[in-house]
Amino acid sequence: MTDDERQISQAIAEAFKTLSDRLSNELEGAFNQMAELMGRTQKQQYELVALVGKQAAAMKALADLLAKVQDDDIERRNEHATAIEQLSQGQMKIAQFADSLATQYGQFFKALSNRLDAVEKEAFGPDYNQQPSTPPLN
Asked: pTM value?
């Protein structure tokens, strides 16, 4: 092997090492971001479970109130209406929270997918033949 061939071979090896290091760093960052997202997701799931627990307590209170209401006492009817309104508001808050959580998950995974696509294009060139990704949910 001539000196020129050896230098070319060494330059190719260094380029592959540099590319490998960059890909490793990008993947490490992406996986760290994914782990952080999973931690946030778990925390939000705990919050959702807590909200569901509060809703169950409100439903029990409503059932207890309904059991107590046996006559036409207006004050008790007002309590009943208030409990129903609070329950409805709680259900609306849970629905809004679940919707925002789903939207946030979609945004995080879309950003992560775009980041990995950019790394692939940078690593393998703009003409890299990648398989089409699944269509977006939104």
From this structure: 0.41
